[in-house]
Amino acid sequence: MNFLLLQKVFLSLIAAAVAAVVVSKIRGRRRNMPPGPITLPIFGSWFQVGNNLDHHDFIRYAQKFGHVFLLRMGQRRIAVVSSPELAKEVLLTQGKEFGSRSRNIVFDIFTGKGQDMIFTDYGDHWRKMRRIVTVPFFTNKVVHQYHGDWEAEAEAVVEDMRNTPAASMEGVVLRRRIELMVYNNVYKIMFDKKFESEEDPLYVKLKNVNGERSRLGQSLEYNFGDFVPIFRPFLRGYLNKCKEVTRRRLNLYKDSFVEVRKKIASTEAFDKNRLKCGIDHFLECQANGEINEDNVLYIVENMNVAAIETVIWTLEWAVAELINNPEIQNKLRAELDAVLGPNKQVTEPDTHKLPYLQAVIKETLRLRMVVPCLVPHMNLDKANLGGYEIPAESRIFVNAWWLANDPALWKKPEEFRPERFLEEESSVEVNGNDIKYIPFGVGRRSCPGIMMAMPVLGITLGRLVQNFELFPPLGQSKIDTAENNGQFATRMSKHSTIVLKPRNII
């Protein structure tokens, strides 16, 4: 009897599920929403799609459902766009309608529910935050003021590698030294601060806590709790860890950097010609009532991720591709020697007269785009896209990596070939002048970091190739370029060991 009752309950549940699917499909057609995988009550397409939100998977779905499709992942609706026309619609034509940001349960913690610049909703607060961050960080004036510091940091990397015997023999993990360089570049602008070595206790503490944040944020493990709220209790430990890491990070920024800078500013004699650092500007805006103390700390949080990690990851990819393509490395070195001569180290102004160096950077950003679907957008209200209705508060992914790697738009996109940007794609720039190539995004929510990233990439790669021949370790023919695809970013799975054989050019 109990078995028959259980059987009836089971069959009723199946019937209810089937009915819900049918009703959902009918409603979807009536509302003319984009196509997508079959959905189930509560779970949507989560059982089919899983926790992954991978740009490669998005390509396969686009081939099945079209250039705009909709994933119903529990309570989340995710619309994915993968054509230049629709990308232009999201980022430019309807940039205001799709201009907000979609956070998840972890990034709600990391950003104080959007008190930062990157993940805040589109509106007055975002405009204010964008202006406040841009002035001290991302203008031509900043490049002019700080490129000498960036050049000095790159020179220090070169000298350290020359003075490290292992670098030219068994090799070193170059990423570690580059990481210190990028931290110094950003912290010089933000706090007028420099770390003397990789062993600096404050640097070690800072790098460790930022690394924890990156690992927790980029993990795909927590998506099930973001998609299906009934599972959220299983994430209690994970979310508590995120809260604890956030507390330690913000306290570290405040106690070891912000308050220290406040004290310096209060004791220094006023000099109107004194070069202000970023935090001086942020604190002035706080004193004027434009932002509060939490906003200041969350701006610092943003800079520790957006301005540091992305540059490090891009440099890792670029070095790996130069090693795996020695003919390209040699061609770049020949350009540097021919244009600058044997005794001239590349500077920021020089990077503008080195077209092959620029092409190498562009090609790295194309094939190895570190934020392949950009930071996700969101429409606060119901919107229309490609003839379909997009429900309010949908998460919008623009598959920028596919736009830059679609064989219909690019010649042999699977090849690392910088020459394309000197030949058939010579008019395409990193600033998004052609929607098929938008490594920094385009429109209202584009990444302002392009102003700092491009010079630093050019200076660093130029000096490495000028001063060293770069090889994989003995016994390896290539660097392993397996991907680690995280929540929003694509990185190299392993920090590679690099052999740097010095060139006697000075």
TrEMBL record:
<feature type="binding site" description="axial binding residue">
    <location>
        <position position="447"/>
    </location>
    <ligand>
        <name>heme</name>
    </ligand>
</feature>
<keyword id="KW-0479">Metal-binding</keyword>
<protein>
    <recommendedName>
        <fullName>Cinnamate 4-hydroxylase</fullName>
    </recommendedName>
</protein>
<keyword id="KW-0560">Oxidoreductase</keyword>
<dbReference type="InterPro" id="IPR001128">
    <property type="entry name" value="Cyt_P450"/>
</dbReference>
<dbReference type="GO" id="GO:0016020">
    <property type="term" value="C:membrane"/>
</dbReference>
<dbReference type="GO" id="GO:0005506">
    <property type="term" value="F:iron ion binding"/>
</dbReference>
<keyword id="KW-1133">Transmembrane helix</keyword>
<keyword id="KW-0472">Membrane</keyword>
<dbReference type="GO" id="GO:0009808">
    <property type="term" value="P:lignin metabolic process"/>
</dbReference>
<dbReference type="InterPro" id="IPR017972">
    <property type="entry name" value="Cyt_P450_CS"/>
</dbReference>
<dbReference type="GO" id="GO:0020037">
    <property type="term" value="F:heme binding"/>
</dbReference>
<dbReference type="Pfam" id="PF00067">
    <property type="entry name" value="p450"/>
</dbReference>
<dbReference type="InterPro" id="IPR002401">
    <property type="entry name" value="Cyt_P450_E_grp-I"/>
</dbReference>
<feature type="signal peptide">
    <location>
        <begin position="1"/>
        <end position="19"/>
    </location>
</feature>
<dbReference type="GO" id="GO:0016710">
    <property type="term" value="F:trans-cinnamate 4-monooxygenase activity"/>
</dbReference>
<keyword id="KW-0732">Signal</keyword>
<comment type="similarity">
    <text>Belongs to the cytochrome P450 family.</text>
</comment>
<keyword id="KW-0503">Monooxygenase</keyword>
<keyword id="KW-0812">Transmembrane</keyword>
<keyword id="KW-0349">Heme</keyword>
<keyword id="KW-0408">Iron</keyword>
<dbReference type="InterPro" id="IPR036396">
    <property type="entry name" value="Cyt_P450_sf"/>
</dbReference>
